[in-house]
Amino acid sequence: MIRSLFRSALAASSTAIALAVVVPTAPVTAQSAAQAPYEDSLSAAEARADIAALYDTMQAEHVDLFARRTRAEYDAKIGEIAARIDGPIARSAFHRMVQEALAFGRVGHAKSDAPFLDVMTHVQEGGTIIPLSVTYRGEAMLTDQWASEGDAMPPGSRVMRLDGLTLAEFERRARKLVSADTDRLPRAQIELGLPAYLFLVFGPRDTLEIEFIAPDGRQESRAIPARGFGEMYALQAARPVPNASRHASMRAFEDVGGGVFYIKPGPFFATEEERGEGGETYAIEPYRAFVREAFAALADSAAKDLVIDLRGNPGGDASFSDLVVGRVADRPFAQSSRYELRAGPNTKAAWAQREPKGDGLGARIADALARAEPGERIAIEVPEAPPIADNAFSGRVFVLVDRHSYSNAAVVAAMMQDLGLATIMGEETADLATTYGATETFTLPASGVKVIYPKAFMVRPSGSLAVRGVVPDFAIQPNPVGAAEDRMLDTALTQIRLTR
């Protein structure tokens, strides 16, 4: 369970967490200190040089580093971070410092995954973390899959304090660890990997005190002990909690009856099983075969309505999603009404090594970058994708989304909404419809930290610049904690049948 949480968090478009060391609110015991993985350090000079290189390179490469912070604010922040480096600094602490600088910009795709990888290394080397699984319902953080043995902290308990911090105080600290454009996105990220956030905020702990209100109304406090991977698996097996979630990588289709067909396309990239020995995420043929099979089954059914389920979808590449959208579109379509690109030196060098084929977006980007001056911001005309006649569907289309519909999944939902191709149902996505994305990477010279940055600004087809996710046409509450049935899908199916 925890492994899937970390993997999901790292796959999500806006996941990246880090901050300069947050001093634990209670002393770290000798046992806790022994849990911390061995790590070397950077000299003060190396750390300061990398912070300076980070800021300089981001200004040159990020499509708009100052989109949500002024230059003066960023200058002050970088200066404040550099001033805190007064001697050798452990690499994990420096990793959090880099992410603090990136998260300050409040752009989800400007990030480093190094702090999360540090937590993974800690656990893989035998360290422990606090096994607290949660989900949000409105403003409430509720316990979900596991936290403690038996009924000590039942599923659906509302968390009030974490180690003495109110939930709002904890979220403010965690917010500094998350690259996110809005305040909605950090909560979605906390859901995906709270144990890692607890580790990064509080440091290695033997226990963490949790104050909560149980579903029956009683108020209690429990010290939750830290655990390793094996112990957490055993804990989950000992207290399974029913849930209706479908794995994010699952691809499925079925005739659900009543004239409705259901397709869950899964991620818009090749899954681990589909990549084969080469490990290429662009291995599209297995996905192409799945889509053909799904729409052939749809054509053979009596269905007049189609549900495309993008809940929990981490996104991916338009060449994958276009295979689905093209079969429900009656005219050429484009994901963006505006696409602007920064021709940074690193971006130009990376694309000079690529040879995209055809006249698609990749080919146009490569040509524009080759012609542009370093640092120039240029506009790209987004090519339209054609409809696909093979088993095309002409009935009503409904797209299910939730706060974990990320990246290209959110973009696809926004496009289908704006172009009138589908009715959007579910809950508002945490990821944005108009966004800074199309990421590239560079590496800091002394620390070797890999930095991810957005090279492009992409505006949804409607032209809206609103800084928010895809807002459903028909809102549906997420499934209650402990519900085995998929109530969100059931509600959607009921609504679809009632509106014929």
TrEMBL record:
Pfam families associated with the record: Peptidase_S41 (PF03572)
Signal peptide: 1-20
GO molecular function: endopeptidase activity; serine-type peptidase activity
SUPFAM superfamilies cross-referenced by the UniProt entry: ClpP/crotonase (SSF52096)
Transmembrane segments: none
GO annotation terms (biological process): proteolysis; signal transduction
Protein keywords: Signal
Organism for this UniProt entry: Erythrobacter litoralis
GO cellular component, one term: outer membrane-bounded periplasmic space
Entry protein name: Tail specific protease domain-containing protein
